[in-house]
Amino acid sequence: MFRSISTLPALRQARPSRHFHACRVVLAQAQRQAGSTSSAQDAPIVQYVKRKVEERRRLQSELSEDALSEEDIRRVRKIRELEPLQEAWAEWNRARQSLEETLPLLNDPDPTMRSMAEEDYAALSENMNNLVENTFPALLVPPSHTGHLSAIIELRAGVGGSESALFVADLVRMYTRAAQSMGWDVNLVSSNILETGGMKDAIMEVKGKGVYDALRWESGVHRVQRVPATEASGRVHTSTVSVMVLPLAEEAESNSSDDDIIKMDEIKLEVMRSRGAGGQHVNKTESAVRLTHIPTGITVSMQDERSQHQNRRRAFQVLRARLMDRKLNQEMLDRRDMRRSLVRSADRSEKIRTYNYAQDRVTDHRLGMSLKNLTSVMDGDGLQDFIRALQQRHHDEILEEVLAQQ
Amino acid sequence: MPPPSRALLAQLSRAIGRESAQNEFRWMQHALAHPPNGIRPPVKTIEEMVARRVRGEPLQYILVRTATLTATRFRTALTPVPPGSQPFGPLHLLVRPPVLIPRPETEEWALRLADTVNPEASPGRPLKILDLCTGTGCIPLLLCHALPPGSVRAIGVDISEDAVQLAEENARLCGFSGSEGRSQEDKTAEAEKRNSFTPVLADLMHPAFVQRAGLKPPYDVITSNPPYIPKDQYDRLPSSVKDYEDVRALLGDPEGTASPPLVPETERQKGLSFYYRIAELVRHHGLLRPQGTLALEVGDGQAADVAEILERDAHVRDISVWKDLWNKDRVVLARP
To answer: What is the pLDDT of residue B210?
Structure first.
């Protein structure tokens, strides 16, 4: 399952193209053998595309004269859906054919002919690679239905007391920097600051297109191994912070009462402190609120803003994000054809990453990938490498799942 | 947190309690770090802010968020004391001593009232809203903001010049300034498409109040957060209220009022004078339209008395009471 390791160097170079590892190896071999190209055709993705193209042809032949029946309408829709794949397949075939024609010329006695043939071969192989690695997957992997969502990041100190709280603050800084350099809007919505300097918990809002899809893999337990600032003896401690990334819809969308995920009669709004006589008698700012969603028991407390109204809005925003998160997870669990590996991302207690200060290394346990230069990760830059790799992994898994279907 | 901050936070905690101190300290730091519109607060350091707060000054007066004080927007002279600010619903209002700082209870019911007011109730003409004892203008400004543009003409009355001036600044800040300061062309062209709020200086208790204030009844909505604190309670108020906010905004039974004694002997000193006066105005001056709404904020424990005053003296029916988030009866509403 460690296919990712071999793609490490490619990732560090931040190449934009995607890798379909198995296929690359196969094509490289074909190039060396300069013999049959049959092994390229055996690649699963190519087989799958071929099957789909054949399916399209079959549907076309089944279409009746006037194409009016229900069946026919369905066929026509499917035929149209598969057209881009058909075109990509045609292109792949043309390239493969040209490649076969070029093969004999690689052994041509004339050096000029040989070098021209080599150039052609390289260009055609590149084209075929591109189709297999980029075009086919893009056509087969359905677009993310969460692609438009922004995100709420909730961080909570775990094991390790005040040291863990300090690491919460470090992670908040890391995510803030990463978000800013990716051009996203980032805000610290709420935080519980300790006198010792860390944060017991924090909530961040990150807004932009594709934010949720990028950050969702940050959910889980982050582990830090370092000598705490307060530690006199210089002993390394291990602390944890749990991170939860929740989907956040645009406020405009989420206000539509028709299918709003929150029903007002299921909400209990409470204040957190007494105000005595209240009203004109008291001018102390009292803005803390607690929102309870009765059906699920989820509560959100908010007191960082200076007015009830502002805190209430923030609390609703966070509640909405938590409910949407539950809904998405439930949808994933309900899909019985979903692979276990995708469902596992819902387990929030999984240790996903270790930040080892002494060894200046950050390891993501899902990828089996380590990055040196911990500072670059904490600054936000190195983190982007992890984010990209995790998104790629997700993409590859979906592709595999698609290919496994008949 | 660096040591000096820790000491300041401890000092603040001792004065106002630990939980409040955490939040207020953070807000002070935020105000210093993010001066809106690039204008620095008058209080330059966190030390000064904490010192003032520890002495009892309300936080809201200490924090600053100033409007763009350009000559084109403000014809009045700049006040020597720069205004602080207070979030009120979706608005940010200027606050300044001694004008009453808007309370969260008022914020809550004003928002709720905005939801219940129906702008279609008077098709073809804007709703006329009258706010008595307007202070910062928070209630009518919130209604102006919440209701469709062009559907509201609001007027707010206050006895205090400071309040009227501040309310005017808030009106301009929120974009709801009435006809004052606008050219004739502005008035006609734009007036229809905007909601407007005009503060007026007048003494509610004066016998000739309606004429002096230039009121043009009837009004569709009458709101008020009138002074309602009984004298004995006023004397026991915390320093941050009593020593910094206008007594005229708080004391429910003002001494030496111009009006004849409305309040029965037995009811005096209960902080209800203004409710008697408002009931009288509604009854005898046709202030409220037949299908209109009267909404009055009341003090702790006063709802029953105020409901009775309205029923008996204002001849209104359909009386209901709204509770606030702390479960206290906070607003008495009525229809004529």
So the answer is: 96
Contacts with A230 from chain B: Cβ below 8 Å: none
Q: What is the 3-state secondary structure (H, E, C) of A127-193?
A: HHHHHHHHHHHHHHCCCCCCCCCEEEEEEEECCCHHHHHHHHHHHHHHHHHHHHHCCCEEEEEEEEE
Do the chains contact at A274 and B326, CB–CB below 8 Å? yes
Looking at beta carbons, which residues of chain A come within 8 Å of B324? 278-279
Query: A309: which chain B residues are within 8 Å (Cβ-Cβ)?
Result: 87-90, 107-108, 111
Return the closest-CA partner of residue B221 out of B329, B322, B142: B142
Model confidence over B120-165: pLDDT tens digits? 767 788 999 999 999 999 999 999 999 999 899 999 999 999 999 9
Alpha-carbon distance B115 to nearest alpha carbon in chain A (angstroms): 14
**Between β-strands A220-226 and A199-207, what pairing exists: parallel, antiparallel or unpaired?**
unpaired
- Please, which residues have CB within 8 angstroms of residue B267's CB and are 6 or more apart in sequence? B276, B305
Q: Is the pLDDT of residue A354 over 90?
A: yes
Q: pLDDT tens digits for A6-63?
A: 333 333 333 334 444 433 443 444 445 443 444 556 688 888 899 899 999 998 888 8
d(CA A199, CA A166): 6
- Which chain B residues in 31-50 lie under 8 Å from chain A, judged by CB atoms? none
B188 contact A CB<8A: no
**Residues B136, B229: contact at Cβ < 8 Å?**
no
The partner residues of A239 in beta bridges, in order of sequence, read A224
SS3 track for B213-281: CCCCCCEEEEEECCCCECHHHHHCCCHHHHCCCCHHHCECCCCCCCCCCCCCHHHCCCCCHHHHHHHHH
Residue A281 and residue B60: Cβ atoms within 8 Å?
no
Tokens of A239: 């602390």
Phi and psi at residue A196, in whole multiples of 5°?
A: -75, 0
How is residue A284 annotated by DSSP? S
Q: CA torsion sign, B266 to B272 to B278 to B283? A: negative
Six-digit token string for B250: 């708080």
Among chain A, residues having any CB pair with chain B shorter than 8 Å are 193, 195-197, 269-271, 273-275, 277-289, 303-310
With CA atoms as reference, the chain B residue closest to A287 would be B104
Q: Does B307 touch chain A (CB under 8 A)?
A: no
pTM equals 0.80
State in Å, rounded, how far the first CA of chain B is from the last one: 59
Q: Number of A to B CB contacts under 8 A, please give it.
A: 105
Contacts of B11 (CB under 8 A, 6+ apart): B50, B54
- CA pair distance A154, A245, nearest whole angstrom: 6
Query: Chain A closest CA to B87's CA: distance in Å?
Result: 6
Retrieve residue B157's tokens: 């009355």
Q: Which chain A residue is nearest to residue B100, measuring alpha carbons?
A: A280
The tens digit of pLDDT for each residue in A164-211 reads 999 999 999 999 999 999 999 999 999 998 877 899 999 999 999 999
Q: In Å, how far from its chain's centre is CA A208?
A: 14
CA proximity to A353, closest of A223, A244, A160, A164: A223
What is the pLDDT confidence band of residue B186, given thresholds at 50, 70 and 90?
low
Nearest to A194 by CA among A171, A158, A163, A240: A163
Mean pLDDT of chain B: 85
Chain A residues touching B61 at Cβ < 8 A: none
Closest CA in chain A for residue B225 = A280
